[in-house]
Amino acid sequence: IGVFIDEDGVARWRPVEAGTVVHNQVIIRSGLSEGDRPLVERLFVEMKIMVLVCTSTLAWGVNFPAHLVVVKGTEFYDGKQKRYVDMPVTDVLQMMGRAGRPQFDDQGVAVILVHEPKKSFYRKFLYEPFPVESCLQEQLHDHFNAEIVSGTIRHCQDAVDFLSWTYYYRRLTRNPAYYKLDCSAHGGEANPEAVSASLSELVEATVGDLVNAGCVEYVSDDGALMPTTIGRIASFYYLKYTTVALFYAELHDVDDAPTELPDLLRVLTDASEYDELPVRHNEEHVNAQMAEELPWKVDHRLIDSPHTKALLLLQAHFARAPLPMSDYVTDTRSVLDQSIRVLQAMVDVAADGGWLYTALGCMHLTQMVTQGRWLDGPGAQSTLRDLPHVDGKVEAALRKKGVVDLPTLMKAPPATVRGWLSNLLKPRQLSELQSLVASLPAVRLEAAAPQKPSVGGAEASIDVTLTPTNSGHRKMVHAPRFPKPKLGGWWLILGVDDELLALKRVHVGRGPTRASLAFVAPDDGGDHEYELHLVSDSYVGLDQMRPVTVRVAEACD
Questions:
Q1: pTM of the entire structure?
Q2: How far is CA 161 from CA 172, 216, 536, in A?
């Protein structure tokens, strides 16, 4: 919606395309591309545009003041609550702070259009000091988990002492009603006894939630605490404790189905990190239309959920489908920014459970997110299409020569490939294509089992050597559809049947990289066959698998 100023000076609202300039007076700020944004700012600063309309979120990114700021309403639609809610006071202050041009004005003018019942609140807020309250209690679970993992908190009493050094503790005694401090049993005052009782109850409830989620465990009756593996995973990847608890509860359900990527994607998008993904007013209709066009089905009863929207945006990212509006482009970038660390945590949770197929599925999902493509199925294309300047004609020409995927093309002599494609690509395009192919990570995987037989039931290890075979290997990943640069890496996995025995993250440089995978040898003596997987965290089609034989001697007294 844009503002049109008629000749008689009356402002009227009419539909207008995003980015349209009307009589050098108004430009719609929301929905502009990154290239247009600096242009709009420069035109406004140079007074070529006299009025600028923008959303509340964009007000944080505006780097210049104005003589007059009009805040048209202090509410926004919250898709999670399905109703209009008040803007944060900090947002209103940020928008008001843009009023006043130091080089032209001696004062700034800010106009806030607000509902009548809230008029006195905003007047009081603007003209009187407003206390800053703590929000620690809303994120206390994750803070406690991180401190328990680091060793700062080893006992429930340590958690109480930790709180006594926070701003939350300072405000608790000054504004007890805001923090729901129960002082009825202590004469109605926030005395030390009431504060101590409140802190003890808060610590007990918070630690109890962490124990129920599987992030923390009691190791003695006196309240001593110890982090679990999933608690360490949550702290390492900066995830909410509810997210890793969800992974631990859900991932084993797809343990015996290595191709159930839709289930893994659903678990990924159900993570608490996507709770705040904006679902704007009437976007449920757009989501429903997207759900009809994308292959993996969603629950239409939750079509207005931020988790369902994240699921749809990732599917559109895989399908390389056009998004319905520019807001969805921004939302997709936000979803992708979170996805890699959440997926890496899913891999670690699956490894802790020993679920081989689940871990491999999460790794393949990471490849799909990085490259923006389907792994397989009706919508999947050849991995050759991930390269620049490769269209249908180029792919067909390569297939006629027996080149059907990336590994085959990487092994072909450059001069031969140039002869195949010289009639289809320009010299510059061909050079770019071959330069990129030369930079892809071609790795030789070598594994050495112990020369002496391993003892049954004892720890054994397999030594692995990864050697790059191309001179132009580079660390940064070629991922044009991922929103930011990404460093490439690999997973080394040792498995047998459907059980994951060992996992390690490795990075391959210009020289050989050596790693060792430790596992517990089986009790039965004889030769045992294992599978050694090398899985890329960025590229589709470059994974390798090698069989490894380990000789085990029966354990004796």
A1: 0.83
A2: 15, 18, 45
Using only C-alpha atoms, what is the Rg of the chain? 29
Q: What are phi and psi of 235, to 5 degrees?
A: -70, -40
Q: Which residue has the tokens 């503002």?
A: 3
How far apart are the C-alpha atoms of 444 and 542, rounded to whole Å?
11
Strand partners for 505? 491
User: Residues near 194 by Cβ (< 8 Å), separated by ≥ 6?
Assistant: 176, 181, 182, 183, 185, 186
Judge whether residue 59 has pLDDT over 60: yes
Beta bridge partners of 226: 217
- Alpha-carbon span 202 to 204, nearest angstrom: 5
3-state SS of 78-123 is ECCCCEEEECCHHHHHHHHCCECCCCCCCCCEEEEECCHHHHHHHH
Report phi then psi at 185, rounded to 5.
-85, 0
What's the pLDDT tens digit per position in 80-116?
777 888 888 878 888 888 888 777 788 889 899 988 8
**pLDDT tens, position by position, 324-367:** 888 899 899 999 999 999 999 999 999 999 999 999 999 999 99
**Closest by CA position to 451, among listed 329, 544, 550, 378:** 550
